[in-house]
Sequence to fold (359 residues):
Amino acid sequence: MPKDMICELLFLRFFCVQSISVRQEQAGAKHQPTPVSMKINILSFVFACAAMLASCGPKSIPASQTESISEYDDGVALLRTTGGYWYFVDENRVPIAEDSRISSIGDEFKDGLILATVESSNPDQGMYQVLDRHGNVKLSSSSPFLSDLLPGSRIWVASDKLTKTFDLAVGYEVSRPQGISLVDIPSGKVLITEDAVLKDCTASGTAVLSRTFTGRHPQWYENAYLVEFMLVGGDGSIIAPWGRIGYIGNFSKGLAPASYCQAGRNIQHTEVYACDNQRNLAKLGFIDEGGHMVIEPRFEEVSDFNDKGYSRVQIKKPTLYSDGKNYKYIDMRGRILSGAEEAEARRSYVGAENTNTYY
Fold:
């Protein structure tokens, strides 16, 4: 039986006994000395009530069930149990939120906030939550957040509604969120909403969005699935609107592979990949997070810049039987390296043949 129900029954019994005693006195019942055995029973009943009431209240987490606990901040600490769950607790190690427990939590607070996955009995809260240092829920979602916490306490979230869209990577339709939004957590204000996919998001908040649509391919006679890109700043401002940059890859070392819209093509329907994953005919270069083409598009293929600041590129168009002899290496200024510099760049790619390459 639940403890709260037991408490209610004990109180009910106590008040019933009291009510009967009062009615007897009002009826003029002759007072009789209370037997010792009855006094003992009453004392036992009182102690049982006190013990049960104590168990009905919030319980602290004992040291034997505590794996670790953080330093207290304004009377609140983050405690991890031996069972693998996390709780925000007060100085008596009593959980702040009695109706929830945290199954996973981020590595650190950012601007006083942290991401967590929470098991809660509150139907109004999603299991994916943004919490402050006192365990207060600042934002919740039923779907996983699309990005980490961004500067300015902002985050990308997905719509709860799903829609079917063609996925170029797998070659068939998949269900995706109907839209994505950049949310300012302190105010709850939505800074921008797009019916798109979040392709990449940098630590500074710059985001690459992509969306597919059906349009006429410039070199074909039938409609095809096409894709275009948008570059969005961490404050929700549009750095490069849909279609201005023909292709945008993932950022690495502050630069992302990119291509212009090819001459003669409708800027609104820029072709990058089609439904059969054929090669994009546009040359590739690199843009920075401001949307500036800092390395002009002149390569057939490029890879992400690695941790040493080198990218492996193809100068000539690769063939089906290419043995890699067309590979060259560039630095972050776009210089094609030679001699000792080329040898150093090549060594940085040893054992990394499956690097991300964009077509």
